[in-house]
C-alpha cells in the first residue's frame, strides 16, 4: 500500500469508480464499501437509470452545508480544526498494489482538546434516528462505510494508520457528538477496504473494461443500498425482478379503499380520545401534587387506591463504551432489535 497527495479541481463531481490513466481501477473513498456491481456500472460508463430525486439532492446538499457548522461547533468546544479548502481540497489516494487506488477528500483535520495528536475528522449529518443509532451502536456497526472512508483518508494523509474521528450532527436537534476510532481499528477498516475491493480488481484483470461482464450483486432488492442505487432499474431488469424479494406476504391484499377507510377510522378515534386523555392528564397532575402534599406513597381515596410510582432511569455513556470496546465485543453487549408499527399523522 502506498499513498500520495495531489491537488485537483472539480473534486466532488466524479463517479464512484473509474479507470485511471495508468489503467487501474480508481474507487471513491466514500463508495469503497459500496456494491461492487454498482462500482462496475460506474467505471464502465453505464447510463444512470435512477438519478437522485430532487428531495434526495436537497437532503445531500443540506448535509454538505451543515459540515462547516459541525466543525465550528467543535472549535467552540476546544478542538483545533483545520477544515478542507472547499474550492480546492487536497485529494488523498491510497494504492493497493498496481491495479487499485482509493481516493477522496478529507473533510478536516483536528486536534482534540487537552491531549491527542492531529487526526482526520470525517463529518456526517444524520437524521435523529440514525444519529441515535450511531451513538448507541458505534460507528463500525452503524456506519461502517464512514469508518472505512476515515481509514482511507488517514492512510492517505499521514502515510500510516492512527486514530481517526467521526463527528456527526443530528439534523433534528442540531446536537453533535464525536467518536474516536482507535488506530488499531482504523488499520482493520483499511484492511477491510482492500479485502472488499480485491474481487473487483480480479474481475477487472479477468474481463478488462467489458461493461457487459457484470460482477455479482452485493445487496438484495429492497435493501437500502439498492433503493439508493443509481443503477437499480438496470440491475433489477437484468435479474428479471420487478418487486423487492422480501415483499412476499401471505396475507390477503388490502385494497386502497380499505386503507382509506382505516385512516378515516383512526382519525375519528384519535379525535374522540383527545378530550378524555387531556382530562386524565389534568386529574393525574392534581393527584400527584396532592400526594406530595400528603408525603405519602399510597392513599385510599374515593374507593380507589392512588399510588405515587417512582422509576429510575439509567444511562450509558456510549461514547466511552464505544471507545473502550472493539465492535465485535460491543455487538454482544449492545444489541439491536427492529420492530415495525404504523404511525398516522
Ligand atoms: S441495485 Fe443493488 S445489487 Fe444492483 S448494482 Fe445497485 S446496489 Fe448493487
Small-molecule binders: iron/sulfur cluster
Helix/strand-derived class?
A: alpha+beta
Give me the number of helical elements: 11
Domain count: the total is 2
Helix share, percent: 40-55%
- Shape assignment: globular
Low-confidence stretches: 3-11, 243-248
Strand portion? 15-25%
* CATH 2nd-level architecture of the largest domain: Alpha-Beta Complex
Radius of gyration: 26 Å
Biggest beta sheet summary: 5 strands, mixed
Secondary-structure element series: EEEHHEEEEEHHHEEHHHHEEHH
If you consult CATH, what is the topology of the largest domain?
Lambda Exonuclease, Chain A
State the assembly state of the protein chains: single chain
Descriptive tags:
single chain, 345 residues, alpha+beta, Lambda Exonuclease, Chain A, 2 domains, five-stranded mixed beta sheet, 11 helices, 12 strands, 19% strand, globular, binds iron/sulfur cluster
Written account of the structure:
Helix 5 (144-158) crosses helix 6. With 345 residues, the chain is an alpha+beta fold. The protein contains eleven helices and twelve strands. It has two domains: 2-216, Lambda Exonuclease, Chain A; 256-307. Helices cover 43% and strands 19% of the residues. It has helices at residues 36-43, 54-76, 128-137, 139-142, 144-158, 183-207, 224-227, 232-238, 256-294, 318-324, 327-333, and strands spanning 2-7, 17-19, 25-28, 80-83, 90-96, 100-105, 108-111, 118-126, 164-170, 176-181, 298-301, 304-307. Strands 1-5-6-3-2 form a five-stranded mixed beta sheet. Strands 4-7-8-9-10 form a five-stranded mixed beta sheet. Iron/sulfur cluster binds at residues 35, 37-38, 217-219, 225-226, 229, 231-232, 235. The site of iron/sulfur cluster has 12 residues, from helix 1, helix 7 and helix 8.
